[in-house]
Write a structure and sequence with these properties.
Blueprint: E1 2-7, E2 10-15, H1 28-33, H2 43-64, H3 79-100, E3 105-110, E4 117-126, E5 132-142, H4 143-146, H5 154-176, E6 182-184, E7 190-192
Antiparallel strand pairs: 1-2, 3-4, 4-5, 6-7
Length: 195
């Protein structure tokens, strides 16, 4: 299936498999159309907007490259490495999209000793395999003290959303931007101490 043709000191692999008529080919242009956020403009969002543009530009450059692709140490990437790198970029953009399109989920946790039900708001993250996982949580308080007319007050939801957004952005920075000063908050979330 493969022919190796010597070229100076390197070799080139030629495959006979390429079929331009395949229907399941990945198209960056089509994919990115489903991954364009609703832009937000505050100091908090400016940093995220900048990161989004940087990651998307790097991803597009990778996909359009006809150069030999290497890692930071100069080692040539294999096709499997490049495949994994493409998936990593997709996951990274998906994580940014989770931040832009935050969705909170309400759950009730019951204290077994007291029988009191506590309202906990949760948000998903994406693991290294690209799967959604419950990752962030914030305990609002006892159900009987939080609810007003059987609803969580809007101001409480806005506060929780802002807290979880900061947790998500902090997690992103830990995973991709080298943030290292971390701790754990009272709900068990990994947080940045000072970054």
């Amino acid at each position: 299936m493969y022919n190796f043709v010597p070229q100076s000191k390197r070799t080139q692999m030629i495959t006979k498999f390429h079929n331009p008529n395949l229907k399941n080919q990945f198209s960056f242009d089509e994919w990115i159309q489903n991954h364009i956020p609703k832009w937000k403009y505050t100091p908090f969002w400016e940093e995220i907007n900048s990161e989004y543009h940087s990651v998307v530009d790097d991803f597009e450059d990778l996909l359009k490259s006809k150069e030999l692709i290497t890692d930071k140490a100069g080692n040539t990437l294999t096709p499997a490495d490049i495949y994994n790198l493409i998936n990593e970029y997709k996951i990274r953009v998906e994580k940014l999209m989770l931040i832009y399109n935050i969705r909170l989920y309400k759950t009730l946790n019951e204290n077994k000793r007291s029988g009191i039900k506590y309202i906990v708001m949760r948000a998903f993250w994406i693991d290294h395999m690209g799967k959604n996982v419950k990752w962030f949580s914030r305990n609002i308080g006892p159900e009987n003290k939080v609810l007003v007319n059987d609803q969580i007050p809007v101001h409480a939801l806005e506060t929780i959303e802002e807290d979880i957004l900061h947790l998500m952005w902090g997690q992103y920075q830990i995973e991709y931007l080298g943030a290292e000063e971390t701790g754990v908050d009272y709900d068990g979330n990994t947080i940045l101490v000072d970054y």
